[in-house]
Amino acid sequence: MGTSAFTQCLCTQKKADKAAANAVELANSPSVICRAEAFIELAKLKTAEKNFDSATYYLSSAEKIYTKQNCPEGSRKALYKAYTELYEIQADYKKLLPYYLKLLNEAETTDNTPEQAIALLNISQVFNRLKQSEKGLQYTQKAVVIINTLPEDGLKAELLNKTGARYLYRAQDTKLLKNYD
């Protein structure tokens, strides 16, 4: 799928300031893709309300639209992020992991190094929660390499803080005090 397929899978309708108003506005759009984005907005609202069945329904509906329209993976970033929010709140780490991996793939495809580092650290945390700390450590180490290339700013500081937390969790889980990088 080329740029045109990606472009066809973007909603260009102006978005409202509030999520609920935005969802209604997008749902009434003649664009099928904008309706998919409406479902994503509704899913995020339902996730925040802890109405997980409805959130899952809306995300599934959005995913069906993207699939039917043959939208490339890159156009589904908002959908994948909404799934991560849902599964993170539910602590359903087995369902969460594939969506973080998809976000990592998208970040690598677009050469977005900050997003790569964020995805790697999120994947690391999921592996830690799945009691696979060695795999988690591998993703943390990959993130460190990327983080070290980022400019000195608030994001880098935040990512380094998360990195330190990943190492601390591993040390607590394994009872091993060791320098990894």
Total strands: the figure is 0
Largest β sheet strand count, sense and barrel closure: none
Mean pLDDT: 88
How many alpha or pi helices? 9
Terminal CA distance? 39 Å
Strand pairing plus helix content: what structural class? mainly alpha
> Strand content of the residues, in percent?
under 5%
The shape is globular
Q: Give the low-pLDDT segments.
A: none
Taking Cα atoms only, what radius of gyration do you get, to the nearest Å? Answer: 18 Å
H-E string: HHHHHHHHH
Helical residue percent?
A: over 70%
Keywords:
single chain, 181 residues, mainly alpha, 9 helices, 73% helix
Can you give me a brief rundown of this structure?
With 181 residues, the protein is an all-alpha fold.
Characterise this structure.
This protein has 181 residues and is mainly alpha-helical. The chain has 9 helices and no strands. The protein has helices at 3-8, 19-27, 32-48, 52-68, 77-90, 93-109, 113-129, 133-147, 154-174. Helix 2 (19-27) runs antiparallel to helix 3, helix 3 (32-48) packs parallel to helix 5 (77-90) and helix 7 packs antiparallel against helix 8. The mean pLDDT is 88.
